[in-house]
Specification:
binds S-adenosylmethionine; about 120 residues; about 50% helix; single chain
């Protein structure tokens, strides 16, 4: 992964992700349905393989609270930068960022703690 990240950028504000936000079909999209988002139901979601954050962004744009876990330090850094740019964009983007919590580490290590927190909540 290290050698291929040079030109990679996480961009929630322009391009395909922003287009999907405008014209993607909302809760009718397959991912949203699969995650159980429907009228009156907005679950919290853990994206255990965050990558470029596109799936997490979609779910957060539909109202879900999303915890993103990314193992790669480089990908995590790209996500931090992309999320910061989106926050600076303000408005809807900032609101979506408020629903996204990013963690760095291996999901195998972090998930047990997250489940324990959820049970205690
Ligand atoms: C195919 S990408 C995911 C794409 C993502 N769904 C999106 O919307 O952009 C897979 C990512 O998961 C991360 N990953 C794989 N195994 C992981 C693990 N056990 N814990 C955390 N992140 C992991 C990889 O570093 C990689 O960035």
């Amino acid at each position: 992964m290290k050698q291929s990240l040079g030109k990679l950028r996480v961009d929630f504000v322009c391009g395909a992700v922003a287009h999907r936000l405008r014209f993607g079909g909302g809760r009718g999209q397959a991912l949203a349905k699969a995650m159980g988002l429907r009228a009156g139901k907005t679950p919290s979601v853990i994206d255990a393989t965050a990558g470029l954050g596109r799936d997490s962004f979609l779910l957060a744009s539909l109202g879900a609270q999303v915890t993103l876990i990314e193992r790669s330090e480089q990908m995590h850094t790209l996500l931090v930068q992309g999320m910061e740019r989106a926050r600076q964009e303000g408005g809807e983007f900032s609101e979506i960022m408020d629903r996204m919590t990013l963690l760095q580490g291996d999901a195998k290590d972090l998930l047990p703690g997250l489940f324990a927190e959820a049970i205690l909540d």
